[in-house]
Design brief:
With 174 residues, this protein is an alpha/beta fold. The protein contains six helices and eight strands, in the order E-H-E-H-E-H-E-H-E-H-E-E-H-E. Strand 4, helix 4 and strand 5 form a beta-alpha-beta unit. Helix 1 runs parallel beside helix 2.
Length: 174
């Protein structure tokens, strides 16, 4: 799997940071937000410096149409995450990997609402030591993990990987 195109959903502060990391790492990056004011702010902040590799999109469909990797930066609320996961699942190519920041939701449970469970990962960025903590599911594909790890390494971050087993079945009592 070859990573060339990255889409970032949400142009708030985290989305702008992720788009900047992606552009600096050399990827063609599309930044999307439903609020035009967020896109204008993003353009003012980062588009000048990174203009050749940054594109702006006004819809999720336009942003993810040819993406190899999609990072969402929507609020860490269950309904927002589920909505984005389902939209990306419908609109992105089958090979696209989905990466979401969350510290409160199980990536295994979020991924289970898609047809690409093996291509969904969660992350937490460490502000102080250049580390990204990445969570994968029991179903994660090695090639998808390698793509996400390569993205973070190209962005200058060290990856710590953990597996999220999701909700495990209760043992049966006899």
């Amino acid at each position: 799997m070859n990573l060339q195109r990255v889409a970032v959903i949400g142009a708030g502060p985290l989305g702008r940071r992720l788009a900047t990391l992606s552009c600096r790492a050399g990827y063609v990056t599309t930044l999307e937000d439903v609020l035009p004011s967020n896109l204008r702010t993003a353009a003012a902040e980062i588009a000048g410096e990174l203009h050749p590799s940054l594109r702006l999109a006004g819809s999720v469909a336009d942003a993810v149409r040819d993406a190899d990797l999609v990072l969402d930066s929507v609020p860490d609320e269950l309904e927002s995450k589920l909505e984005i996961f389902q939209m990306v699942d419908r609109m992105a190519p089958p090979h696209t990997v989905l990466l979401t920041p969350t510290s409160v939701h199980s990536i295994a449970d979020l991924a289970a609402c898609t047809y690409r469970e093996e291509r969904c990962f969660a992350f937490e960025l460490s502000e102080d030591n250049g580390v990204v903590r990445m969570m994968e599911t029991l179903e994660s594909l090695a090639e998808a993990r390698e793509l996400v790890t390569a993205f973070w390494m190209a962005a200058g971050l060290r990856v710590e990987l953990k597996v999220d087993p999701g909700v495990l079945p209760l043992p049966t009592v006899r």
